[in-house]
Amino acid sequence: MKGPLFYAKILLFGEYGIIKDSKGLAIPYNFFQGALKTSNNLTDVAKKSNANLKKFYTYLSTIDKEKVHFRLEELKKDIDNGMYFDSSIPQGYGVGSSGALVAAVYDKYADNKITVLENLTRDKLLKLKEIFSLMESFFHGNSSGLDPLNSYLSLPILINSKDNLEPTGIPSQKEGKGAVFLLDSEQIGETEPMVNLFMNKMKNEGFRKMISNDFAKYTDACIDDFLHGNAKSLLRNVKQLSKVVLANFKPMIPKAFHSLWQQGIDTNAYYLKLCGSGGGGYILGFTPDYVKAQDILKNYKLELVYRF
User: Where would I find the GHMP kinase N-terminal domain in this sequence (predicted)?
Assistant: First the structure.
């Protein structure tokens, strides 16, 4: 038995901002994926996943049946028969490992599920997001539901605000010099402590002002530029966003990367930003010249996401 594949996601823009209702843009990233599988002979990794699914099953049985109804007996039987989530999506890296698992379980075990094939009205998207938020809270204590939504639909999603989402198209990749890439910090990041840190910072009026003025302004401009294929303007705005993040989100950036971050801003060779909640995992990079950036960052593992 092997279920359909569910992909990783990258929140290109909007980390933390979407908690406070600014814009965001999430895209599927099919370099990493996961699927539900069953085996009689589980490896250690699969055993761990199977044990995690048991806990997840217990949690799902507490969710309000009015919101979403799961075929729990079938799920429990499959788990007892050795079902696990076979995934290449790195955990704690900000690319939606738990989101893909949530999407896979909803797809296989939810009754009356909303499917990708139907007309995805805003109401349906919001209902899906609410269900996924409830499900994914098991992993993070608090979830927007966006990662599973992206993984489930496998479509780029534009977040205009908490209650306004829409599937969107992104410009097709060009054979240009510019690129979006992932830089591996080789450290695991944990979502919950980072989000708690952000919430504490939000108690500070100066920080709140910075979020609603500078952070939201540059995030919105970056999304607009990206969706319209305005590469020059995009890089200008990403540079400003990179500065704002370095100045105000230092605890979310692993210490070893503070000077590398600044170097990008100073040289204009690349600009870094958080990928997900930060604290480790991947860091997102934007560059006008990927070959040059690769050379400067040759001591780090990079993954290409998008060319422009």
Answer: 83-147
